[in-house]
């Protein structure tokens, strides 16, 4: 029916365009595609710029050379020490691997990281690196000119900080590569870089910070006159739209996952507001899965998303208010199959036939009772 993720990665690799934007629902393979793409460019026998071996004597020109990427694995390089004994010295530890050593220790990006971070949060929120650069603590300036030190920042602020680490080195790399004469560049460490692959940097961000991040990244993409190509995947329509318009893209893609485990990279003209109606696209995906008897766990997330958007449009406070009969029971069943639950015993490879029928039933409820246009089948 479709193609493998390797086929999709190869298409993106061979594209002539400087920027490729791909929209994909959660659970349809974004992170897997990022790993497949990296493997296609840099086989695992060669250490990459985000490598996990802390014993590597890292030099960017000796390692990845061709690709710089950001994904959920990048975020895993940072973890909290909450000082549970004294509840005083809270800090964000930095895993000592090739990527973090290079950005922070070798490139000396601490000042730029702080600057980018504050532009996405507040100039009163200050990150301070430890002397050995193995951790970072945060303080906030109060109105009385006093600082509150060693605070634990929010999940959104943490995502902003980790992105700022990546963005700082990316900004530096592009600025270096924009000097066309190799002999005039500050360094030749990045001369062989060909791709920047970014997988959803906007988790946990509110709309204001999301837009600012997209504008900053879009401006950097537009400033790029080197051979480097950007490939970006996201599940967020607002982020996709802002970037699409910032870089003046003529088309983007939707990554689709089929029930047989294959994929499709579907070209779309215009941003998501112009090229597809988000809620109608979700509805179509669920209908196709029902028709082909290929319902998977992520379709429960799509169904909930469709209910949420319909409820929001119609003015309901909760999406569950649109459910039929015993709303609490149906809401619980939908959530039990939500693809990002964290409890191991809830992990189910594939819904049962009654559970698949529930998807069909709940979609019919939404279509028949809440004003969706139905087109009769041709006779």
Please give a structural write-up.
The structure is a single chain. The protein has 379 residues and is of the alpha/beta class. The chain folds into two domains: 5-82 and 157-274, Rossmann fold; 277-369, no CATH class. It has helices spanning 5-14, 30-41, 72-75, 98-106, 110-120, 155-177, 207-223, 237-246, 272-275, 278-291, 298-314, 327-336, 353-369, and strands at residues 19-24, 67-70, 78-81, 91-94, 125-129, 135-141, 147-148, 195-199, 229-234, 251-257, 263-269. Strands 2-8-9-1-10-11 form a six-stranded mixed beta sheet, with helices on both faces. It is globular and about 60 Å long.
What distance separates the N and C termini? 27 Å
Round the mean pLDDT to the nearest integer and report it: 80
Provide the structure class: alpha/beta
Task: Fill in the CATH topology of the largest domain.
Answer: Rossmann fold
> In this structure, how is the largest beta sheet organized?
6 strands, mixed
Rg (CA only): 23 Å
Q: Which strands sit side by side, in order, in the main sheet?
A: 2-8-9-1-10-11
Shape: globular
Number of E-state strands: 11
Helix-strand topology string: HEHEHEEHHEEEHEHEHEEHHHHH
CATH class of the largest domain: Alpha Beta
CATH architecture verdict of the largest domain: 3-Layer(aba) Sandwich
Number of structural units classed as domains:
2
- The helix fraction, in percent, is 40-55%
Q: What proportion strand?
A: 15-25%
């Amino acid at each position: 029916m479709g193609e493998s993720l390797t086929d999709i990665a190869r298409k993106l690799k061979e594209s002539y365009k400087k920027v490729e934007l791909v929209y994909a629902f959660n659970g349809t393979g974004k992170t897997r595609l990022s790993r497949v793409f990296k493997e296609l460019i840099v086989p695992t026998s060669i250490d990459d710029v985000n490598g996990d071996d802390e014993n590597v004597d890292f030099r960017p020109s000796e390692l990845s050379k061709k690709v710089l990427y950001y994904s959920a694995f990048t975020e895993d390089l940072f973890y909290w020490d909450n000082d549970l004994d004294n509840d005083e010295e809270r800090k964000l530890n930095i895993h000592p691997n090739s990527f973090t050593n290079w950005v922070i220790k070798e490139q000396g990006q601490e000042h730029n990281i702080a600057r980018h971070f504050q532009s996405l949060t507040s100039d009163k929120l200050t990150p301070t690196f430890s002397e050995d650069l193995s951790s970072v603590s945060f303080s906030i300036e109060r109105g009385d000119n006093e600082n509150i030190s060693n605070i634990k920042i929010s999940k959104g602020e943490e995502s902003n900080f980790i992105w700022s680490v990546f963005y700082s080195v990316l900004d530096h790399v592009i600025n270096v590569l924009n000097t066309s004469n190799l002999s005039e560049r500050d360094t030749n460490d990045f001369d062989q870089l060909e791709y920047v692959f970014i997988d959803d940097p906007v988790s946990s961000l509110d709309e204001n910070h999301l837009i600012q991040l997209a504008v900053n990244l879009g401006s950097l993409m537009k400033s790029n006159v080197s051979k480097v190509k950007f490939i970006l995947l996201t599940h967020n329509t607002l982020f996709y739209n802002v970037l699409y318009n910032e870089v003046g893209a003529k088309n983007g893609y939707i990554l689709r996952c089929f029930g047989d485990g294959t994929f499709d990279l579907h070209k779309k003209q215009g941003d998501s507001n112009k090229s597809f109606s988000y809620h109608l696209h979700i509805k179509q995906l669920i209908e196709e899965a029902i028709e082909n008897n290929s319902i998977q766990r992520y379709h429960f997330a799509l169904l909930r998303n469709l209910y949420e958007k319909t409820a929001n449009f119609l003015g309901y406070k909760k999406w569950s208010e649109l459910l039929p009969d015993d709303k609490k029971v149906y809401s619980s069943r939908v959530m039990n199959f939500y693809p990002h639950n964290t409890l191991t015993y809830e992990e189910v490879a594939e819904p049962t036939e009654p559970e698949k029928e529930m998807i069909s039933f709940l979609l019919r409820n939404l279509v028949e009772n809440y004003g969706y246009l139905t087109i009769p089948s041709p006779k």
